[in-house]
Amino acid sequence: MRLIKVLFAPVALIVGIVAFGVSGFAVYAIAEAPRTINVVLKDDRLPPGAIHARPGDRIIFRNSDDHTHTANLEEPDHRFVDKEIEAGTSVMFIVPLTMPAGEYELNCTSHEGMKTTIVVETE
Ligand SMILES: [Cu+2]
After folding, report:
1. Cα 3 to middle of ligand 1, angstroms
2. pTM for the full model?
3. Chain centroid to CA 66: how far?
4. CATH of 36-120, one of 3.30.70.1150, 2.60.40.1940, 2.60.120.830, 2.60.40.420
5. Which of 14, 69, 98, 102 counts the most CB atoms within 10 A of its CB?
């Protein structure tokens, strides 16, 4: 019986370390809170350079022009196709948790050349 206790103690310690390690990882994963990325549409242009985002991030498109733009992004479930952004207003696109990593073109269907790339990163 004493031998079992002696053997059990190190096993319990190892189990405890593994459990702590796993929970520590979980806390780290949760700590990666969704970010808010602000994108301003101005003078019929989108900001230069790609927009880098992770699933769960919020991308807020603000129309600072005096006329309507659209945000057209054929994400997997087509919820954000040709979304109107009235002058002086904003729309929010939440990158779906299921959106595969990759590059997606976002454009305004009203103004040719008004486009950018959303790079979805899952790591
Ligand atoms: Cu436009």
Report:
1. 76
2. 0.73
3. 29
4. 2.60.40.420
5. 69
pLDDT (tens place) for every residue of the chain, 123 residues total: 454 454 444 444 444 444 444 445 444 454 479 999 999 999 999 999 999 999 999 999 999 999 999 999 988 888 899 999 999 999 999 999 999 999 999 999 999 999 999 999 998
Cα 55 to ligand 1 centre (Å): 25
Cα distances from 120 to residues 40, 67, 103, 104, in angstroms, run 19, 29, 6, 8
What separation in Å is there between the alpha carbon of 119 and the centre of ligand 1? 20
Amino acid symbol at 80: F
